[in-house]
Known about the structure:
Elements (H helix, E strand, L loop, with lengths): L1 H16 L9 E4 L5 E4 L2 E5 L12 E9 L1 E4 L20 E2 L5 E4 L2 E10 L9 E12 L22 E5 L7 E5 L12 E6 L7 E8 L11 E9 L11 H10 L5 E3 L3
Helix pairs in contact: 1-2
Amino acid sequence: MRSIKNLVVLAAVFRFMSNTPASAGPIVCDLTTTSSCAINGGIFSVFEVHPTGTGVIDSFVRVQDKGDEAGYNTSYRKVQFDEKKDPNHTRDLGIAEVGTTTFGGVEYATFYLDINEPASGDKQLITLDELELFTTDLPMRTGYSGVPNTASGELPGTTKVYDLDWGGDNYVQLSYNQIGGGSGSSDMVFYLPMALFTGEYVNLYSEFGDLDESPNKSKSEAGFEEWFTLQSLAITSVPEPATLVLVSLGLLGGARRRKG
């Protein structure tokens, strides 16, 4: 039942996106209090893929550090930031490997996130502070540069197709306990229109933690976070009547502008 409910809410968000301009200022997507929200044309949603389990997820990037942690998927070595160097967990990702989900006749690239933080108190919380996606025809990319909490990230030899921080210091609040916790099970899914992806490879850069020491953000407690994709879980369209009902009920909250 959880999956059906998530899909119906997502349908409403996708419909909402088609009639909503891009953000003009900082936005917080709080997935501890809502199921789904949209920022800069991308969709963030609480979503659990199971059964999975540690060692079953075929992750393409895993990052781990205490406080702030960052990294991107590449088969280049030495890794640049806090990526785990094991090629089973941090590697090049071909665009042909990316699973898709279809809503309203539109195909979306689908990326799952598994967070692994303590289950107790505020330590269960973590902030996805930056998310950037790049496409390229070249493997083994390296040399990322950028200023934290801005849309300045660059990866040589690639084209940026998404930045969470376009329009401001946007971020996503997550909780390890929101679904039930446990390593090897997704906590969030991110959707982006597949039409944006060209070339042979995709590089996903993410940063977690209290990067600007904002009291509204939550740092990593040294657990690892990993991204993966599953082609076998592509989902067909949700019926249009359900979308219209949710829109009329206003069930599209959660993404809010942050007060300065």
